[in-house]
């Protein structure tokens, strides 16, 4: 080939390369400009890769928000090493020195092989350091986060979504990140809560309540990238901690009370671009769609949110999680069928999101008995054979134990006939696991005589009893059974530890209620529910044999159990209590070993870690709106070398405090004391203190009764006393609200009863 011919071919090649490159650039721009919205993408095949979202850097504008409105402050030099791109082996290791994932490792077992603290010396535990995080202490916030620890640094988040990095040996604050959330954010069914952050490849990953995913620089807290996962205005929010695995960040979407279509999505950990998205409600033509009506669009707003952090088995290359209730929660009349994959345990291919298997715990749920507890992976010898198990504690009060390779029961689960209601299109059968329930599942006449008001003459039932116009009181309630507080598995004792709730709830259907008609971005539960006034409520801490699903020991509390669990090789189980205690039990027998009273509801899961050979126990004690507990903002950390044996022993100047003065209290005070209509001021007080339990305009909450028809609205003295003193599960506000705030919220509540006048 002569020189001229060679030059010609080189020129042709260059032109071809430019043309091809230009084509792909054009395609990329076109895809970004025409990326499908969640609503438009309804025919996407399960497991198909979703469109990447354009989030090149931290200056990328997010719709509806100006860029760079987040703030980060660095208070001291970062003392540790940067986290690597953790390998599958790193993430499978039981947590000892570090605690690098939400569940301790990607099996979600919350078991640590640390044993320097054990049943013989746990009574010597004392507070080592305490840190006030300076945010999230208003009543609308709930402290539910699991801290992470890597190389001597702790990362944690408050209910206000503020993230802090702390020295894990002293509690000194290294840096703080405070996101800018929309002032009008109101699509949160259960209060402002988040359950933690993720860590990997030098970044801290944060899921925000307004459905954004943010990556922070591990050393400074500065934003590296930000991605809008979905639109909060339509009911899509995120409360779960994200999961880092194999260069991806996984997050689910919440919003089952808002008629959303749930999904799990994977994002590139380096760039924040979406890799795949798998919907939990199958579209027409996909397996499972035939469990939804074929003559309406109930599946489009069918619910099945993802409330919790998934687990992963790298050997099987599967990612596992559970899904929430079908929408609307309590009205099944327009969604005939089993409603897959709501109320289910799901396994997907971790690389592609492709469906692998499912197991549905509640067919055609009309009771909000969805599995909100994180799934736990374990290996155990059953009938002489090592099996790969997966366990999940349901709101039903059962633990479901399956083979995680295929979703088949390990212990046995029987389909049994259940009572029917034609209006509700109820399923003829429901799954009943072989084994013990960890809370009561029926109400007896003896229960009525002992626990319910003397004038009670309503209907009672047991699990899966349907309802329509006439109210029916049932157990378990929408609080569970098992709710969000994570369970734990100890391979040494071969026991599975779970927290349970036990209270009376009344259900009734009111089809003509305007509040229960679907409107995008509005709460939509489809009926009425509320706790039985003045009835007792309780909780359980239960250890079940992983091989038989039978109770080995159980502790009964006179309040709901609403925190989470960690268990250790030291034969200990640590839990938090509503009254502020962190408690240690003997993991084998359930015997009380140690406790420490903090200054707020201990409603988050404890963790344990080790630095320089010293073992620590740590818990975020900040209270919880739905539990009605005292609010605070502190991390308490304990060791055998700690100085403080009680809360009273801790000097005020020994508590680490945020160098940033929180403006939350000032903002709320300004809103509530501002000039204007007293009812409008009362609405602001209500939104910050009452909405999570009682719902918008006093209807549809998750822990409190319907306020619109409360007889107290016609009795100022009784209403004022209830607000000040509280009763039952409701706390009193006389020590947290000022007198004019109490009067303002009282006037707002009275306006609810008069709104139809």
From TrEMBL:
<keyword id="KW-0479">Metal-binding</keyword>
<dbReference type="InterPro" id="IPR011047">
    <property type="entry name" value="Quinoprotein_ADH-like_sf"/>
</dbReference>
<dbReference type="Pfam" id="PF01011">
    <property type="entry name" value="PQQ"/>
</dbReference>
<keyword id="KW-0813">Transport</keyword>
<feature type="compositionally biased region" description="Acidic residues">
    <location>
        <begin position="38"/>
        <end position="61"/>
    </location>
</feature>
<dbReference type="InterPro" id="IPR008168">
    <property type="entry name" value="Cyt_C_IC"/>
</dbReference>
<feature type="transmembrane region" description="Helical">
    <location>
        <begin position="7"/>
        <end position="26"/>
    </location>
</feature>
<protein>
    <submittedName>
        <fullName>PQQ-binding-like beta-propeller repeat protein</fullName>
    </submittedName>
</protein>
<dbReference type="InterPro" id="IPR018391">
    <property type="entry name" value="PQQ_b-propeller_rpt"/>
</dbReference>
<feature type="region of interest" description="Disordered">
    <location>
        <begin position="32"/>
        <end position="71"/>
    </location>
</feature>
<dbReference type="InterPro" id="IPR036909">
    <property type="entry name" value="Cyt_c-like_dom_sf"/>
</dbReference>
<feature type="compositionally biased region" description="Polar residues">
    <location>
        <begin position="420"/>
        <end position="429"/>
    </location>
</feature>
<keyword id="KW-0408">Iron</keyword>
<keyword id="KW-0560">Oxidoreductase</keyword>
<keyword id="KW-0472">Membrane</keyword>
<dbReference type="Pfam" id="PF13442">
    <property type="entry name" value="Cytochrome_CBB3"/>
</dbReference>
<keyword id="KW-1133">Transmembrane helix</keyword>
<keyword id="KW-0249">Electron transport</keyword>
<dbReference type="InterPro" id="IPR009056">
    <property type="entry name" value="Cyt_c-like_dom"/>
</dbReference>
<comment type="similarity">
    <text>Belongs to the bacterial PQQ dehydrogenase family.</text>
</comment>
<keyword id="KW-0349">Heme</keyword>
<feature type="domain" description="Cytochrome c">
    <location>
        <begin position="677"/>
        <end position="753"/>
    </location>
</feature>
<feature type="region of interest" description="Disordered">
    <location>
        <begin position="651"/>
        <end position="677"/>
    </location>
</feature>
<keyword id="KW-0812">Transmembrane</keyword>
<feature type="region of interest" description="Disordered">
    <location>
        <begin position="418"/>
        <end position="437"/>
    </location>
</feature>
<keyword id="KW-0732">Signal</keyword>
<dbReference type="InterPro" id="IPR002372">
    <property type="entry name" value="PQQ_rpt_dom"/>
</dbReference>
